[in-house]
Amino acid sequence: MPGVLNTLTITPFEGSTIGARVDGLDFSRPVPDEVSNELKAALHEHGVLVARSTNVDDHTMIALGKKWGPLDNVTAHKKAGRKMRLDIDEIFDVSNIDPEDNLIAEGDALRVSSARGNALWHADGAYNPRRSGISIIRAVELPPKGTGGETEFLDSRTSYEDLPDAKKMEIQNYVGMNTLYWNRIQANPDMEMFQSIDCTQVPLAKHRLAQIHEPTGRGNLYIGSYNHHIEGLPIDEGMRITHELRSHVEQDKYKLTVSWENPGDMAFWDNTAVLHRATIGAYAGKYRRDMRRISTFDDSKWAYGENDPNNSQQIGLK
Ligand SMILES: [Fe+2]
């Protein structure tokens, strides 16, 4: 179709090393391959894309995601006993609404612990043997404006490039040991059910800390709140280096904040180039906020990290 390639407009955000706004995405018809390819290339370059007030729904979001690879799903969480509000397994429910369609209450420890965990910096799927590639999230229902809930991103490629050469050399072969439990322990110091877990005695996903972002060839610091220690180093030493690197990447100069304005707003991010977190705003416990995410499995050579691709059981939490 003539002109299809020109339907998208990509406008980089000013004052940030990551992120761009996308205009011209239309989900009323299937997204053509040319457009999805253009979108993917822009995503790899900018790390984060934001589209406002789109006409996407669950099925059109999934159709777009499937063009970029097989989709992760909630099967492991269901097996662990988690009850689901939504009946499409490819959709991760990151709302504050429970399966009975009520606001999640402070007393619902498991759901509160999960929301708090998502508010720590991470790359989706880093705690699994096969990590996530691209994530897409969209707003279905939003709380009143000014009540918070922004999504924040960190430019982990620039943060890697900014490391001194000696530090790059030091970490080049380090393998991070990742578990979802470590995220939950840090996020929920008041919850006894997590504090007794020994993160050296649970299944750990191994992913290198210093990586190459294949589509651009740039270096990337792949670290976040799932990373408990470093393979082959004394636990304390690995935790100290992990903490040091996290403090580096978490500096404000690497951060982009995306606010949610209207239903249909979407954010796309490349988990192999940026980190992200949710923020818990004043809306929590007061107003409904329905956000839905899908994620592709990474298909780069780094996808399985140092894990056995033939033994890649995913981790699920109730
Ligand atoms: Fe996430």
UniProtKB/TrEMBL annotation:
State what protein this is by name: Uncharacterized protein
Q: Say which species the protein is native to.
A: Vermiconidia calcicola
